[in-house]
Amino acid sequence: MTFADVSDAAKAKDLLEGLVGAVPQIRTLDVRLDELKTPVSAHLCLTTTHDDAAGLVGYQEHPAHLEVAVWLKPRLAARTVVDYTS
To answer: What are the Stress-response A/B barrel domain coordinates in residue numbering (predicted)?
Structure first.
């Protein structure tokens, strides 16, 4: 994620980490902030794992996740998503 104001990244990290325990479909959640601050760097990387595709959808549709999304979306300058199964 890239924020319009980079100072929002730290609060976003806290909000996202707060989803652990609140959203039962989350198996793991890892949030990292950019350290190198290069011209091509994003500000935040979120990685989550779920039991299956239905778990991912459950996470995406969970009210706690949607509440964080309401805060995040207007602050983002760019967002990229990669969903995959292993």
So the answer is: 1-84
Q: What's the number of domains the chain is made of? A: 1
The long-range contacts involving 37-46, CB below 8 angstroms and separated by at least 24 positions, are 42/1, 42/2, 42/78, 42/80, 43/1, 43/2, 43/3, 43/6, 43/9, 44/1, 44/3, 44/9, 44/12, 44/13, 45/1, 46/1, 46/16
pLDDT of residue 86: 82
Task: Note if the pTM is more than 0.85.
Answer: yes
3-class DSSP state for residue 42? coil
